[in-house]
Write a structure and sequence with these properties.
11% of the residues lie in helices and 44% in strands. The chain has two helices and eight strands; from the N terminus they run ββαβββββαβ. The model has no long low-confidence stretch (mean pLDDT 91). By secondary structure, it is mainly beta. It has a single domain, classed as OB fold (Dihydrolipoamide Acetyltransferase, E2P), CATH 2.40.50.100. The longest helix is centred in the N-terminal third of the chain and has 7 residues. The strands form two sheets. A five-stranded antiparallel beta sheet has the order 1-2-8-7-4. The protein is globular, with a radius of gyration of 12 Å.
Length: 100
């Protein structure tokens, strides 16, 4: 399992588990320039690749902390990645996963 896991947070939401980037993750990666996210309806498995991010300091594949189906993707990330680079950690989320 990648040490990157500690740089991501999870939070219970109505349709499952929300996965986002912590301030430590932001510091470690630097400015996120691109993220390849799963799509709504995709199945993800704990420990397998959930998404890839390209940032100033690293290009990283991020393992999923949960197994299930993607129910939401942060629409703010469709046009830019500012939400992942700001101080509002609650806004720095990638996807919601309905665990199975």
């Amino acid at each position: 399992m990648s040490e990157m896991v500690k740089y991501f947070w999870t939070k219970a939401v109505n349709d499952g588990t929300r996965i986002g980037l912590t301030s430590e993750g932001q510091d470690e990666l630097g400015t996120v320039k691109f993220a390849k996210l799963p799509e709504v309806g995709d199945d993800v498995k704990k420990g397998e690749n959930l998404l890839s991010v390209e940032a100033d300091k690293a290009v990283s594949d991020i393992p999923s902390p949960v197994s299930g189906k993607v129910t939401a993707v942060n629409s703010a990330l469709a046009s830019d990645f500012d939400a992942l680079n700001g101080s509002d950690i609650d806004a720095a989320w990638f996807v919601d996963v309905q665990e199975n």
